[in-house]
Design a protein that fits this description.
The structure holds two protein chains of two kinds. Chain A is α/β, with parallel strands linked by helices. Chain A is built from 14 helices and ten strands. Classes of the chains: A alpha/beta, B alpha/beta. Chain B: Keywords: Chloroplast, Glycolysis, Lyase, Plastid, Schiff base.
């Protein structure tokens, strides 16, 4: 027997209203409506441009400290000039713009010039590559001894975004890292804290005219955890992230997502591209609404060949995906390029050549058209430790 | 017993994750069947006939054509609907009220069997209705979680393969945070329970047409309630490949002076769906909520002018039944004509699902509005 509920007319309700009801907060839906923001249309266009089919992002935003480690690995000193030379090599690679739609930079790089005096941002734009800027200021340890982290960078972010936009940046990036594969990881604290940082960062970027790349990285780490476990935690993390993006009124047509592919732990057997694709696509289908124009996977330690083959498999698995399934690769585009250069002028052209070949391979994979052979076959995983303690100088 | 095992499997999964043994992500016994059922209902050119009016509400319908509200009359009316020849071309599922699930045709066939013969999946309303929600501004919450697992198991045995639960959100009354959260919470818990019992849950947080708000305000509220609902469903480990949604379209309120035509309704509604609905969900079956038969069809047609990542279709009650009732008038000799009227409306909405609807084929009756202020279901 169902009890009937008569919805009272507003007049009757006002008479019966108690003090509690009168002070009832409305639903927390922001009035950040695409019709109000002056940047909304531009953000959507920028995001759509970067996410266009067959193109991806070159992630070259390593902090000075991390760049230093890379340079040192090929015997090059970590000086500002050497860092500048290295990025000049990347951005002036002829024809790179056919395959790359955006390049993420560290703050120092955004303001640097090539040897002939041209601003890096202008060189990139001339190639049809949109300049982007890393705006987080690094990882900090969370309390507890599980090695979990949060990401810093909200202080003064609005002002920084304004300045970066003035300098020519069109998009921004913030990397949040969630660790799995150890007892107690990820904790609820870590998930909520990282989701919150991403959502606030995204909101501030949009308000100040930059497309935010939202990067919730469920990181590839030690352990023999299965690909299903990665998928399980990835879904949990993305669910929180999406909820907070909604809560903060972030316009989804004006963001890009930079997630991890679903991979088993480092001590488990490497998964085939087909398994990676099946599980990763399933996770994205469950978590990411179609309004997001592009999903730019991070390479996160995959070898250069693995990163391309997995990306091709993703596009085989979901050729009609509502978002672009593409890349935002750092190590998977730079590792062999760097080794080829090794700081020597005489290797400049050869290094640029291999970079463009790698970009082309991944561009083809993003369009579902990579047939091989891979320019750098058979490489191993390219791992780096999590660096905490704030952005390096 | 199965339920206890399922719970401990779930508990094991969480404990295992914490202690680093292998993780069972989801041990759903019915997972494959749920996906199959959801995709059958969300098939091209087809939608749902909602005929789950409670006895009291059904009484209102019968009353409007001068027919007495008896069990036999309700039975006869529902028989008219589900034995319409050829209806299965356009209707993939029919939602029943509990009484109807156990009724039979005049010649002794169970309704669920008659429906299956027509290629229609039987569904069942499982909520126990709306009641006042404490400390809110005259808002309501939806009851039905108590004993829901057992009811669902019984309904599955009786032949139902999907379920439906209708919560409401009222813009003129708020919506308050309390009502908002309870709506999402109830739907998420119901969905998890239904899936565990083999029933595809239709998830329906109806943002009521009542009010003088504009279409932007409706969009805002709809985006908020769907964000909340998906979050709670994810937390409750609902499998999105095995659910169907039943949203209201994004429209201005019934008393808003600025009206919106099909193109605008489609633009706003698709924007809302694209922002809030993961592509894993196979089907979105819109409610008509007081729109006229014609409006409901035109709006659905406008939404299907280009491919969508999910099946975008209908789950209409009043917008399929209005003309049928008026044609029937409770008289046996009118049954063929009434069934023809149902077939016509079902085909119109099927065409709309395919984006091919032609309004030139309609009569005057179809344009009659069916909005009722403060409508009680």
């Amino acid at each position: 027997m169902q009890t009937k509920m008569q919805l009272r007319s507003p007049r009757a309700a006002s008479c019966a209203r108690t003090l509690r009801s009168r002070t009832q907060p409305k639903v927390m839906c922001r009035a950040f409506n695409s019709m109000e923001s002056p940047y909304a249309e531009e953000l959507k266009k920028t995001a759509a441009y970067i996410a266009q089919k067959g193109k991806g992002i070159l992630a070259s935003d390593e902090s000075n400290a991390t760049t230093g480690k890379r340079l040192q690995s090929v015997g090059v000193d970590n000086t500002e000039d050497n860092r500048r030379d290295w990025r000049e090599l990347l951005y002036t690679a002829p024809g790179l713009g056919q395959y790359i739609s955006g390049a993420i930079m560290f703050e120092e790089t955004l303001y640097q010039k090539a040897r002939d005096g041209r601003q890096f941002v202008d060189i990139l734009l001339a190639q049809g590559i949109y300049p982007g800027i890393k705006v987080d200021t690094g990882l900090q340890m969370l309390p507890g001894d599980k090695g979990e982290t949060t990401t810093q960078g909200l202080d003064n972010l609005a002002d920084r975004c304004k300045a970066y936009r003035k300098q020519g940046a069109k998009f921004a990036k913030w990397r949040a890292v969630v660790k799995i594969g150890e007892a107690g990881c990820p904790s609820t604290t870590a998930i909520l804290e990282n989701a919150h940082g991403l959502a606030r960062y995204a909101q501030i970027c949009q308000e100040n005219g930059l497309v935010p790349i939202v990067e919730p990285e469920v990181t590839l780490g030690p352990g023999d955890y299965s690909i299903e476990e990665t998928a399980f935690w990835s879904e949990r993390v993305y669910s929180h992230v999406m909820r907070l993006l909604n809560e903060y009124g972030v316009v989804l047509e004006g963001i890009l997502l930079k997630p991890n592919m679903c991979l088993p732990g480092l001590d488990a057997p490497v998964a085939s591209p087909q398994d990676v694709a099946r599980v990763t696509v399933r996770t994205m289908m469950r978590s990411i609404p179609p309004a997001v124009p592009g999903i730019h996977f991070l390479s996160g330690g995959m070898s250069e060949e693995e990163a391309t083959l997995n990306l091709q498999a993703l596009n085989d698995e979901a050729p009609n995906a509502p978002w672009a399934l593409t890349f935002s690769y750092g190590r998977a585009l730079q590792a062999t390029t760097l080794k080829t250069w090794a700081g020597k002028e005489s290797n400049w052209t050869a290094a640029q050549d291999i970079l463009v070949k790698l970009a082309k391979a991944n561009s083809e994979a993003a369009a579902g058209k990579f047939k091989g052979p891979h320019p750098v076959p058979g490489g191993g995983r390219i791992l780096q430790a999590l660096r905490t303690g704030g952005a390096g100088k | 017993m199965a339920l206890i095992m399922k719970q401990s499997a779930g508990l094991k999964a969480v404990t295992a994750a914490r202690s680093r043994k292998s993780v069972v992500v989801r041990a759903g016994k019915y997972d494959e069947e749920l996906i199959k059922t959801a995709n059958t209902i969300a098939s091209k050119g087809r939608g749902i006939l909602a005929m789950d009016e409670s006895n009291a509400t059904c009484g209102k319908r019968l009353d409007s054509i001068g027919v007495e509200n008896t069990e036999e009359n309700r039975r006869a009316y529902r028989e008219l609907l589900c034995t319409t020849p050829g209806i299965g071309q356009y209707i993939s599922g029919a939602i029943l009220f509990e009484e109807t699930l156990y009724q039979s045709t005049k010649d002794g066939r169970k309704f669920v069997d008659a429906m299956k013969e027509q290629n229609i999946v039987p569904g069942i309303k499982v909520d126990k209705g709306l009641v006042p929600l404490a400390n809110t501004n005259g808002e309501s919450w939806c009851m039905g979680l108590d004993g829901l697992d057992k009811r669902c198991a019984e309904y599955y045995k009786a032949g139902a393969r999907f379920a439906k639960w209708r919560s409401v959100v009222s813009i003129p009354h708020g919506p308050s945070l309390i009502a908002h959260r309870d709506c999402a919470y109830g739907l998420a818990r119901y969905a998890a329970i239904a899936q565990n019992a083999g029933l595809v849950p239709i998830v329906e947080p109806e943002v009521l047409l009542d009010g003088d708000h504009d279409i932007d305000r409706c969009l805002e509220v709809q985006e908020a309630i769907w964000a909340e609902t998906f979050k709670y469903m994810a937390d409750n480990k609902v499998m999105f490949e095995g659910i169907l949604l039943k949203p209201a379209m994004v429209t201005p309120g019934a008393d808003c002076p600025n009206r919106a035509g099909p193109a605008k309704v489609a633009e706003y509604t698709l924007k809302m769906l694209r922002r809030r609905v993961p592509p894993a969900v196979p089907g979105i079956m819109f409610l008509s909520g007081g729109q006229s038969e014609l409006e409901s069809t035109l709006n659905l047609n406008a939404m299907n002018q280009s491919p969508n990542p999910w099946h975008v279709s209908f789950s209409y009650a009043r917008a399929l039944q209005n003309t049928v009732l008026k044609t029937w008038q409770g008289k046996a000799e009118n049954v063929p004509a009434a069934q023809a009227a149902l077939l016509k409306r079902a085909k119109a909405n099927s065409d709309a699902q395919l984006g091919k609807y032609d309004p030139a084929t309609e009569g005057k009756e179809a344009a009659q509005g069916m909005y009722e202020k403060g409508y009680v279901y």
